[in-house]
Write a structure and sequence with these properties.
Strand content: under 5%
Shape: globular
Largest sheet: none
Order of helices and strands: HHHHH
Structural class: mainly alpha
């Protein structure tokens, strides 16, 4: 199926980007708040670039989910959620490989996987609903 680029729902892409930012802000402030993760401060990039990059990633992720949901014709919340969950599972597999090679801790793995499984499932549901 060819993608009709002009049929992508721009409002859904914007709402999805905002949803990603709000969810990420809440999720990471709850999971990483305080001094629970001292190694985070050691590895954290200083300055505003991480926030700027996060905003860009949120909107790119929403756009990509819009394309996947549209390309698969996944109309409705359930069908959209399934597409989003599959994207989250692919990301989980990539993180699992990284974990197995010692590139991240178990705790970092669980934090990242939890975040991506939930947000991409939510984005899929949103784009399926607004298709």
């Amino acid at each position: 199926m060819l993608i009709e680029w002009n049929e992508l729902n721009i409002i859904a892409i914007i709402v999805g980007g905002l949803l990603y930012m709000v969810y990420g802000g809440i999720y990471y402030s709850m999971r990483l708040g305080g001094d629970k993760h001292p190694e985070k401060k050691h590895n954290e990039v200083e300055g505003p670039i991480k926030y700027i990059f996060s905003v860009v990633v949120a909107f790119i992720s929403s756009f990509i989910m819009a394309v996947f949901v549209h390309a698969t014709g996944s109309e409705g919340i359930g069908a959209g959620m399934l597409v989003g969950l599959m994207v989250g599972l692919v990301i989980t597999l990539v993180y699992m490989k990284n974990r197995l090679f010692g590139l991240m801790t178990n705790q970092s793995f669980m934090i990242a996987v939890g975040d991506h499984l939930v947000i991409f499932t939510l984005l899929g549901a949103l784009h399926g609903l607004m298709l």
